[in-house]
Amino acid sequence: MILVLRTIARNPVGPFKTHPLALRYVHNGSGLWQRCAIAAQLVLGRVSLPPVINIGPIKLEGFPLLLAPMEDVSDPPFRAVCKDHGADLMYTEFISSEGLIRDAIKSRQKLDVFDYEKPIGIQIFGGDEDAMAMSAKIVDAVQPDLLDINFGCPVKKVVNKGAGAGVLKDVKLMERLTAACVRSTTLPVTVKTRLGWDDNSKNIMDVAERLQDVGIKALAIHGRTRAQLYKGQADWSLIAAVKNNPRIQIPIFGNGDIDSPEKALEYKNRYGVDGIMIGRAAIGYPWIFNEIKHFFATGQHLPPPNIDQRVAVIKKHLHHSIAWKGLVPGINEMRRHYTNYLKGLPGIRDYRLKLVTHTSEEAIAEVLEEIVETYAGFEFERRQINMDAMAYSCDA
Ligand SMILES: Cc1cc2nc3c(=O)[nH]c(=O)nc-3n(C[C@H](O)[C@H](O)[C@H](O)COP(=O)(O)O)c2cc1C
What we know:
eight-stranded parallel barrel; TIM Barrel; 10 strands; binds flavin mononucleotide; 396 residues; alpha/beta; 3 domains; Non-ribosomal Peptide Synthetase Peptidyl Carrier Protein, Chain A
């Protein structure tokens, strides 16, 4: 104890005196001993503080893992289970700005965000400045933590309206749409986009600089062009180039094809991004976030979730789905998730058939209990994901 205190005394202007995060760490120690030890270690430089990623006023500690916005997937019930399993920042599905200002029910419902989800971003898309400005105001009234603009959707009916990835062909319009949103909200505005329109027009560097100048607070980049849709491999080298551009001060999040803890670590180290956004790998497998965090911290894999843990998550997802959507739509919408949650179980087909035909939560819960009994002790293999099979069903 004396040694520790002496060490601190000899370093009166240690970083813990000035660094607010260090002070917090010191204050968070449970006892005097622990606090002294942490303070001394900080002074001696033996422990380093986790970095903090700032998105305007939002502070994300360490290396954040983001749940990607996914149409028809990342609704509140799905987000609830991802939050439980380590997602640090989440987004809604994309919302049409035209739909929002027309008061379309589907668009309005996507605005539902809950306190336990924080920090949460609402994502909008559109190609008209006025509609985007009005939508930004509507989103502002809901008070999520941030407003995200989608400049990456490759779907034909979106692109043809000059929205989503279509805007990548007109960077001036992109600037105007973004500026309209920045002007119309007090929330931090962020953007999610792709490398460019096609192989001959990978303009992400220019896009990043211009959008930063317009006032966005973070940029998430999916390492594909619009022309690639979801084919081929995501190329993160240009994402790294944007991150390494000395002009770029905002956080850069990398996105595309992260499907395992090893890949997350490899890409984190190789491309130096500020955080990773995960989409398809979380579908039916929200455990991916904590598995990656555990691997970062220890170099070891967490054991795959057992059948009890999987069924507990299915029940929670179903419960949230019914609470949010109502009984019938809640049960119907949950049906597309069972296959992914129960992948790898031999002979699961008959049970799955029952799950998708029952119409009450109790009956479904009974089938789930049967599944737990039948597969008690089943050893799941580490997850292999067929990312192509989960790709956006788009008409492009
Ligand atoms: C089913 C599905 C729906 C998607 N919907 C959206 C969306 O609403 N907004 C958006 O910006 N990207 C959307 N995306 C793209 C993802 O956010 C992400 O960029 C893409 O899946 C690549 O990441 P991944 O390889 O981790 O899946 C969607 C992707 C999928 C598979």
